[in-house]
């Protein structure tokens, strides 16, 4: 809202220099964003909050300044000379939908000669950022800026008549009715919109914009002036539905004083006669079916001080409120009558805010209420903190991504059309941009995106993780699911060497990350089983299970996925259900220290040649089963293929450590156990022991 | 040999010769020991010298990963609020219209909603535009006194630019108890400000409007860079506008099941992406989701 300082001074006298004025208004609640100079005049650019539509006028801002400087507000007099016929002989107003139009006031000015408005008027409009058009329209805009009442002028002769009188009908639009608005666009009206009509149909969209058919032109001789009050919700919906926003609709959506229609009408009629000559018909057509109830609020001075933490005496509180133009009757409580131009004041606490801001927020002391509360994070937050600590400890950098994505992300992840990650994606009904239309259902897409971004910039090594939410549509009638997941991605460095790729170093790296990570939440044994997932290499993908519950997937990204991200070197990805891990962690019992044996251990190594398709786990299980309690640890320290090993086989090298809890084991005892182990592995997987 | 030949000497000569021989033996043994020690020391020195390393070569051990700069800010805020006795909580990012607007005292179709243009999923569900939605959820389940803080992600239909994103993060704190005043809000904000920006930080309020607080205020802190002298970050004013605050509106307390005649409360919030950008000198908000390893490894 642009307010020229001299215009303001016509309403309230003050000496403060402009920068002081600006600062004071800001500290009162009217933020002056900047001070402009337009054609030598100083103009304040004020940001008015959405609850103070009454400040969208010079009068409104002047009221605030008057309160601030404790000066009187003077509204310039309007000595309107009326001549000619009674307005009732010239025009007629019917309000059919009073719920949407509680007041409609009109005047008629006859016999005008329209040209340009005088220079002072045009200058003022320009200072306020409004383009001058012609003397009549400019007069209506000037009064709107000055008093906050949006006005409209009709070419009276182009309105349809009833009994020779221009007939204004304020009614809901009918479905299918159209209106060509002043900007030349044809608008389709609907039943919820309020139209200003004449007997032939809509002539204006109430509170938003006038129609072209009754537009003021240089040929206009007789003018019908509208000054009305409309339901703010109706105006807002109509404006939005038609994609329109005007100075008028902006004000009607907020606050327009129903008590100010006639004053604005008098002022604009006066200006029009000044600019264009002509005669103002006698009287005002004021149809006022719904006068607002007088608003009275009871205010307890004790409550003011209790809420603010101040000690302002009752009389002073009353004085502050009066400075805003409120009527206050003092007593044990203060009875405040709220004028029609402040409909935002409805309850006691609204008045307390008025007292506070005029008293000065910065004069309220700083105190600290004592508290014995113990601060802490929720358990879920602590566990997410633990997740981050684990992953950074494992050498991965934390990434962050938008939760909104585009369905093409699913294509890049090689997901077929019927994959649940695709079908359970929640779509945004009103996206802002084409690129962000769905909520992500997996972290994998963004991990690949990170790999791609870094590769494109020549950053060869990626060690990344994200702890973040994914979203899945609920089953029919169920709420959507929001799940916290932990995802990680590795690429490059030693994992990218030819050998590394061949031997799957990256796979075992990401598996290592998963194992160490889960260990931070639970000591329950983790199981990995080969699985197929369209985003992963078919032979290098594992489902991760905790106690038979599936908690995630990891592996080497599928070739197609790499290609879709313009990558040649492989990527290794992991995604785990953090909610499941958090649940496990909450139930995890405290560790119990096991007594350590004081007796020496005996180590034996074992090398086995085993068919390729036998998973290592089966061999491990066989060894453990056969070895029994004396086996303290089993370490598979090497997997070898090559010379000396027949094709289709691999050599597994184990180191076994045996120890008894209560005495020293003998070599011969250990020999017996190792024999049993050898027999067991031969039986279980057809292994051949390498001596 | 001399010692062995002692037996051939006469009785008078034997003691003298024996002593002389032992003395000589003693001196020889000592000399040999000394020489051995010298040689060993020299050998040790030589060996150590040849084992010396170039200490300026790079170290080699597992590297620690880095936390995201926004996480660092969130950690700092968490520590400050826990230190002041607040319980840190979370809420859903998919919210209902009811918790995001209705219980926060937004009248239907109010222009205040213009700044909260929301992504809708269906008629009732949207992506939350403010973390204030979490506050009422929490207030419904607690009896005063309580102090809660939440840090989370919000979504607004805004265009993406270097300064603002449609996805951003907020931190919000609130207190409800008997006799909580605006003065308490100011006092706690002052404590918070000094923890965040340093011991000389001041707080300045100006009236503002939020449907869920009354009185409402926008608060500014002494600019962290110029300490109030004026610089390009604070546009020469010496103050940085950090966030909104106010006394919780009675309608909101009532909607959460509390009696505004018996208790009162305050709330304040701030945008954390902006704080991270100011603190770390990040000039484009989009860098926070760019995930270039070189960027992340600076923190």
Task: Describe the secondary structure blueprint for this structure.
The complex is a heterodimer of chains A (691) and B (299).
Chain A: E1 2-4, H1 5-9, H2 18-28, E2 31-38, E3 41-47, H3 58-69, E4 82-86, E5 91-95, E6 103-110, H4 119-127, H5 135-147, E7 151-155, E8 161-162, E9 165-172, E10 178-180, E11 186-188, E12 194-198, E13 201-205, E14 209-210, E15 223-229, H6 232-241, H7 247-253, H8 261-276, E16 279-282, E17 285-287, E18 295-299, H9 301-308, H10 314-323, E19 327-329, E20 334-338, H11 348-359, E21 376-377, H12 379-393, E22 397-398, E23 404-405, H13 408-412, H14 420-423, E24 438-439, H15 444-456, E25 462-472, E26 481-491, H16 498-503, H17 505-519, E27 526-530, E28 536-546, E29 549-557, H18 559-564, E30 571-577, H19 578-587, E31 602-611, H20 616-627, E32 631-640, E33 649-658, H21 667-685, E34 688-690
Parallel strand pairs in A: 4-16, 5-9, 22-25
Antiparallel strand pairs in A: 1-3, 2-3, 6-15, 6-16, 6-17, 7-15, 8-9, 9-12, 10-11, 12-13, 13-14, 18-20, 19-20, 23-24, 25-26, 26-30, 27-28, 28-29, 29-30, 31-33, 31-34, 32-33
Helix pairs in contact in A: 4-5, 5-8, 6-7, 9-11, 12-19, 20-21
Chain B: H1 13-51, H2 69-83, E1 87-89, E2 94-96, H3 97-100, E3 125-127, H4 132-140, E4 146-155, E5 167-177, H5 182-197, E6 203-207, E7 213-222, E8 239-248, H6 250-255, E9 264-271, H7 272-280, H8 293-296
Parallel strand pairs in B: 1-4
Antiparallel strand pairs in B: 2-3, 4-5, 5-9, 6-7, 7-8, 8-9
Helix pairs in contact in B: 2-7
């Amino acid at each position: 809202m642009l307010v020229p300082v001299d215009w303001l001074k016509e309403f309230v006298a003050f000496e403060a220099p402009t920068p002081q004025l600006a600062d004071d208004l800001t500290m009162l609640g009217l933020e002056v964003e900047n001070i402009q100079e337009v054609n030598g005049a100083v103009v304040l650019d004020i940001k008015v909050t959405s609850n103070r539509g009454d400040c969208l006028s010079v009068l409104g801002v002047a009221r605030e300044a008057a309160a601030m400087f404790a000066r009187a507000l003077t509204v310039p007099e309007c000595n309107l000379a009326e001549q000619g016929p009674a307005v009732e002989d010239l025009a007629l107003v019917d309000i059919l939908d009073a719920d949407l139009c509680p007041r409609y006031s009109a005047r008629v000015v006859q016999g005008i000669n329209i040209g340009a408005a005088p220079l002072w008027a045009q200058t003022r409009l320009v200072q306020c950022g409004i383009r001058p058009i012609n003397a009549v329209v400019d007069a209506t805009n000037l009064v709107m800026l000055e008093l906050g009442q949006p006005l409209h002028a009709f070419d009276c002769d182009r309105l349809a008549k009833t009994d020779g009188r221009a007939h204004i009908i304020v009614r809901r639009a009918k479905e299918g009715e159209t209106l060509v608005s002043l900007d030349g666009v044809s608008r389709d009206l609907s039943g919820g919109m309020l139209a200003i009509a004449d007997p032939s149909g809509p002539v204006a969209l109430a509170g938003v914009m006038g129609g072209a058919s009754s537009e003021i032109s240089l040929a206009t001789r007789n003018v019908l002036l509208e000054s009305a009050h409309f339901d703010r919700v109706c105006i807002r919906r109509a404006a939005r539905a038609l994609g329109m926003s005007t100075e008028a609709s902006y004000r009607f959506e907020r606050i327009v004083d129903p008590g100010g229609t006639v004053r604005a009408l008098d002022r604009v009629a006066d200006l029009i006669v000044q600019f264009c000559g002509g005669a103002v018909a006698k009287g005002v057509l004021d149809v006022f079916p719904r006068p607002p109830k007088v608003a009275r609020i009871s205010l307890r001075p004790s409550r003011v001080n209790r809420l603010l933490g101040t000690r302002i005496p009752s009389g002073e509180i009353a004085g502050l409120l009066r400075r805003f133009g409120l009527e206050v009757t003092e007593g044990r409580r203060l009875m405040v009558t709220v004028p029609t131009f402040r409909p935002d004041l409805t309850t006691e606490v609204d008045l307390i805010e008025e007292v506070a801001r005029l008293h000065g927020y910065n004069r309220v002391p700083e105190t600290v209420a004592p508290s014995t509360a113990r601060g802490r994070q929720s358990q879920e937050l602590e566990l997410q903190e633990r997740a981050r600590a684990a992953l950074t400890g494992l050498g991965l950098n934390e990434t962050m991504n938008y939760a909104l994505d585009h369905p093409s992300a699913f294509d890049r992840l090689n997901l077929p059309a019927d994959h649940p990650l695709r079908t359970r994606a929640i779509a945004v009904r009103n996206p802002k941009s084409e690129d962000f239309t769905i909520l992500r259902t997996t972290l994998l897409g963004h991990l690949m995106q990170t790999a791609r971004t870094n590769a494109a910039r020549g950053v060869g090594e990626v060690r990344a993780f994200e702890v973040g939410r994914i979203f899945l549509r609920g089953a029919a009638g169920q709420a959507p699911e929001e799940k916290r997941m932990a995802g990680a991605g590795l690429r490059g460095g030693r994992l990218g060497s030819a050998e590394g790729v061949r031997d799957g170093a990256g796979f075992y790296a990401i598996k290592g990350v998963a194992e160490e990570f889960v260990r931070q939440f639970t000591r329950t044994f983790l199981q990995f089983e080969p699985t197929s997932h369209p985003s992963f290499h078919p032979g290098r993908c594992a489902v991760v299970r905790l106690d038979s519950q599936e908690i995630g997937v990891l592996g080497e990204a599928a070739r197609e996925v790499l290609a879709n991200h313009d990558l040649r070197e492989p990527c290794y990805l992991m995604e785990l259900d953090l909610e499941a891990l958090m649940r496990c962690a909450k139930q995890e019992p405290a560790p119990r220290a096991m007594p350590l044996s004081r007796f020496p251990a005996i180590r034996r190594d074992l090398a086995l040649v085993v068919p390729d398709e036998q998973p290592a786990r089966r061999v491990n299980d066989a060894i453990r089963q056969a070895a029994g309690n004396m086996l303290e640890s089993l370490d598979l320290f090497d997997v070898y293929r090559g010379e000396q090993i027949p094709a289709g086989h691999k050599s597994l090298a184990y180191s076994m450590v045996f120890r008894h809890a209560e005495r020293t084991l003998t070599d011969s005892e250990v020999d017996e156990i190792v024999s049993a182990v050898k027999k067991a592995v031969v039986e279980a997987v057809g292994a051949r022991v390498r001596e | 040999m001399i010692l062995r030949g002692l037996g051939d000497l006469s009785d008078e000569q034997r003691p003298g010769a024996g002593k002389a021989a032992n003395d000589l033996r003693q001196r020889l043994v000592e000399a040999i020991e000394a020489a051995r020690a010298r040689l060993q020391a020299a050998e040790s020195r030589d060996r150590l010298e040849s084992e010396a390393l170039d200490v300026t070569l790079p170290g080699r051990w597992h590297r620690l990963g880095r936390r995201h700069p926004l996480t660092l800010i969130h950690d700092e805020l968490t520590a400050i609020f826990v230190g002041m006795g607040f319980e840190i909580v979370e809420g859903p990012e998919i919210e209902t219209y009811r918790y995001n607007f209705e219980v926060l005292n937004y009248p239907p179709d109010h222009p205040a909603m213009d700044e909260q243009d929301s992504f809708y999923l269906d008629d009732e569900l949207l992506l939350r535009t403010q973390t204030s939605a979490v506050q009422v959820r929490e207030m419904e389940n607690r009896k005063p006194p309580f102090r809660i803080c939440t840090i989370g992600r919000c979504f607004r239909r805004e265009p993406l630019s270097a300064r603002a994103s449609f996805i951003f993060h907020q931190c919000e704190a609130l207190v409800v108890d008997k006799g909580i005043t605006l003065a308490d809000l100011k006092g706690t904000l002052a404590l918070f400000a000094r923890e965040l920006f340093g011991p000389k930080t001041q707080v300045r309020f100006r009236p503002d409007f939020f449907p869920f607080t009354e009185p409402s205020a926008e608060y500014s802190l002494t600019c962290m860079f110029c300490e109030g002298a004026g610089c390009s970050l604070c546009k020469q004013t010496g103050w940085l506008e950090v966030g909104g605050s106010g006394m919780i509106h009675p309608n909101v307390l009532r909607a959460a099941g509390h009696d505004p005649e018996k208790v009162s409360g305050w709330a304040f919030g701030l945008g954390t992406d902006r704080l991270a950008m100011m603190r770390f000198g990040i000039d484009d908000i989009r860098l926070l989701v760019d995930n270039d390893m070189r960027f992340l490894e600076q923190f």
